[in-house]
């Protein structure tokens, strides 16, 4: 199957570093299609050139939609007060519903631009059966070393989760911890992300339309292997750059960083 990887992304000093790191996964794995959705009013040259230089023009789709100002984080807001990527992921879902072949078995994965992904994870996703949602552990998230589905010893089906943060959520897992058979997106056209849900409920919001806990397909060695980490990049300190800017100078004059 083709794995459609949906990545919301927005301009900030380390955006190109994040996307460059991700692009190498796509260069290694020919069955991936990157749906990259910019949180901006226009499609940027930075993203277009990056896709081109990685040789991904044919295996990627560049979209853009700006998060409405009312929902956008302000400079000093803690990052958790508003959901991120809602608008962008919903646009990608509608693109997939329009452009993917409804008769074929493909996969959709929501891929943040700052996480760390092993190439092995994508081989696991390829095992997702038509009409199912695959799940696996995610490292370094929810205040734990690892958040993971808990399996019944006899049936190997998911019977719970080890999450410590908001464990009462219907699906207490991170966005990086599941992927969806496209068949389900065609079967449940209302499945999407929403601004109307509490913090931490985006994953549950889409999954509640698509599956139940016991229908989840455990992957990654029956959820014993960690193949993705919820890493977060430190905010770049640019005090010296700001001082230069005040003198009308830039260290990156004529360069794309
Ligand atoms: C966690 C989850 O890993 C996210 O998938 C989820 O969207 C988020 O919580 C949430 O609850 O909204 P976290 O690391 O805190 O993620 O979020 P970010 O990595 O800052 O943002 C998630 C994605 O949205 C990234 O790909 C980021 O580039 C994008 N984003 C973020 C935008 O497109 N616009 C923004 O203003 C902020
Ligand atoms: Mn992140």
TrEMBL record:
Keyword field: Glycoprotein, Golgi apparatus, Manganese, Membrane, Metal-binding, Signal-anchor, Transferase, Transmembrane, Transmembrane helix
Co-factor requirement: Mn(2+)
Site description Interaction with galactose moiety of substrate glycoprotein, residues in chain: 147, 240
Involved pathway(s): Protein modification; protein glycosylation
Primary location: Golgi
Similarity section: Belongs to the glycosyltransferase 43 family.
Protein name: Galactosylgalactosylxylosylprotein 3-beta-glucuronosyltransferase
Species: Musca domestica (House fly)
Section of the entire sequence shown: 52 to 308 of 308
